[in-house]
Structures are given as structure tokens and as C-alpha cells.
Specification:
The chain has 191 residues and is mainly β. It contains no helices and 18 strands.
Length: 191
Amino acid sequence: GQAGEVALWNVADLAKRRAWQAHDGPVFDLALAPDGETLATAGADKLVRFWSLANGGPLMQIEAHSSPVLSLAYKPDGALLASGGADKELKIWDTKTREQKTVVTGHPGNIAAIVWPAKNAELITASDDGALRLCSESGTRPGKTWAKADDMLHCLDVTDDGKLLYGGADNGHVYAWNRDGKITLTLVPGK
């Protein structure tokens, strides 16, 4: 698609249902609200924007970071949204009021990915240095740094039970961390 475009696709026939210009420049991440009705987008234009999935129309925007917004994650109850930026900050936003609740500083580089695995206050971030960091929605600094991958991380996901996290790195490897913060598996292409 075009730079800044977001598209919705029908999974049955892979037909494009709707597309719209979401940002001026690249869209770096998307997050679907737990209610399935709202999509949040992260852009190079330093904005987080919220969209109605019913009609593709804008709902609101947040001037979120001082540099591109790279990552998003909803709290599972949908009340809060976390955004991570190239400015090395993790910010927590109230999704109804757009009010910034918390700023977490202390990441050594871009916050490339975020997961919010449970309804509690705990988030996990992935950064340029290859490490995962445990953060709190009310804290101002990362709490615990987990083992580092061999390269910078670009994406992160968590199993439904929250026991394993998987991160994709610049070197093409996928790393698995357990809840103790140890890398338990490295998936290498061709091996």
C-alpha cells in the first residue's frame, strides 16, 4: 500500500474491504482494542491515532512522542494504551480521555515492541539492545532487564498463558524467554 495507509482485508477471499490514509509517512504498528471496535495506529509523524473499524473514520489522536511512534499495546481491559517511541520512552495513555498517565524512561534505545500479557499493571518491552524489560503502568523506570538476544529486537509476542515471550531480531533469529527472564530457545533459519 501507500505510505501511511491502513487497509482492512476480508480473510475469506483476501479482498480489500476498506483503506484509508492513517498517517503522514509510515505506519509502524497497529493495535486492535479488546472490544474489536477500535484500531490504534502508530506513525512516523509522532502520533497515535484511533480509528473506528465500522467505517474507517477517525476517533481521536494523541501527540504522543517527540520522535516516531514505533509500538503499541492495549491493556487487556482496553482502558489504557501503551506507546513506545524512537525517543526511548514508554508512555501509558487513558484511552477515553487521551490523558497521559505515565512516562517510563531508562530504555537504552528505541522501544520497538510492547506486550501487555495480563490485566495487571505489568508490561514488557523490547528494545534496540536486544533485551526485554519489565515495566509497570505506574512506574517511571523499567523494573527488571531480561537476558539479551544477540541483536536488536523488532517484534514481540506472548503466549496466551503468559509463560513464554517470543522476540524477532534483526539477525533473523527468534528468541523465546521464560517468565524468569532467561532465553530458553533460539530459532535460527535453516536449522
